[in-house]
Amino acid sequence: MHKKAYLSKSLSDDGVQCQTCEHFCAIKPGEAGECGVHRNIDGDLYLVVYGEAIAIHVDPIEKKPLFHFMPRSDALSIGTYGCNFRCPFCQNWQMSQRRGFDDQRDYVGQQATPEVLVDICRQKNASIIAYTYNEPTVFFEYTYDTAKLAHEHGIKNVYVSNGYMSRAALDMIEPYLDGINVDLKAFKKEFYRERCQARLEPVKRNIAHMARETDIWVEVTTLLIPDLNDSEEELQAMAEWMAGVNPDLVWHVTAFHPDYEMHDRPRTSQRALARAYEIGKEAGLRYVYVGNVMDVDRESTYCPQCGEKLIQRHWYNVKESWDERGVCPECGQAIAGIWE
After folding, report:
1. If DSSP codes are grouped into helix, strand and coil, which group holds residue 157?
2. What is the DSSP string of 52-81?
3. For 209-268, what is the HEC assignment?
4. Which of 58, 202, 206, 323 could pair covalently with 22 via S-S, beta carbons 3.0-4.6 A apart?
5. pLDDT digits (tens, 9 = 90+) for 33-45
6. Residues 91-120, mean pLDDT to the nearest whole number
């Protein structure tokens, strides 16, 4: 299904500029932008995967991962095709790196309009819709329409994103976006330019803006890739920057495994993850977590004031230990998050 883009600008010779993400692609007739799914058709820009859900699953919210956002809730997780990054280590590359859509015969998903998605949530008692698997910014029109309708029915919305949306897109989705997990893939411009074919600064700008100036709950994930983005110097700079933005920013440091086009690196060691965890804490971040490995201690939530264990996690088995969500029962410290 095609949907006319919400954020675009006409150019000469029937060209069009997409204004949905920070690439600001200038697209000639018949061609697509970097994402592969915003296409110029006769001088107008269209999202060509609108309503085409390649994956629809009910997942625990902890899988996104979002640890301080309505724990133990079910999220209807949806994705389609396309991405505005070209990461060689992508773990959902079958969906995100698909390109070259010419007509409806290219789609292998199921048609699911925003109305259908909201109905599925109501049938399955899912209180959240998560736009995930591939980059939600690139199917922005689909996420926006769905999120707006979901809010009308009391359903919350979260993005799992690389954070590369334009400010216009962020401002437009903000009233309907309740939470986001942003992949902060590294803290060096060269990594973003060479590995992702993108830029670091817009990601930092969007994280800081959301965490400081909006009501969107923000968590950050960094996949630790051995000898690429895991030096103590880089992790310390990243953690100190996040703590300067907001010490309540939740940071997930997760284990890499060889995938897609990156099979020349080993899996992330438990020791490297533990050290990144400590670096985050030392930098002043109150909530740091280890992921993609079994580590109950570093998956759990502790009161930053007295150290009381408040939420124990064993993969997606979650046990809460407080009388009132968001308040430490031992010292009364408020725990940052969206708990209801």
Report:
1. strand
2. EESEEEEEEGGGTT-SSBSTT-EEEEEE-S
3. HHHHHCCCEEEEEEEECCCCCCCHHHHHHHHHHHHHHCCCCEEEEEECCCECCECCCCCC
4. 202
5. 999 999 999 999 9
6. 78
Residue 57: band (very low, low, confident or very high) from pLDDT cuts 50, 70, 90: very high
First to last CA, the chain: 35
Give CA–CA dist 155/162, Å, rounded.
23
> Helices 270-282 & 232-245, crossing angle to 10 degrees?
40
Q: Give the whole-angstrom CA distance, residue 150 versus residue 172.
A: 15
B/e letters for 281-312, b = 16+ CB within 10 Å, e = fewer, are bebebbbbbbbbeebeebbbbbbbeeebebbb
Distance (Å, whole) CA 139 – CA 126: 22
Rounded average pLDDT over 269-275? 97
Taking residue 207's Cβ as centre, other Cβ atoms within 10 Å add up to 21
**176 φ/ψ angles, rounded to the nearest 5 degrees:** -115, 0
Using only C-alpha atoms, what is the Rg of the chain?
A: 20
Taking residues 101-124, report their average pLDDT: 80
- Residue 51: pLDDT band with limits 50, 70, 90: very high
Cα–Cα distance for residue pair 22/169, rounded to 1 Å = 10
Cα angle value 189/182/195 (rounded, 5°) = 35
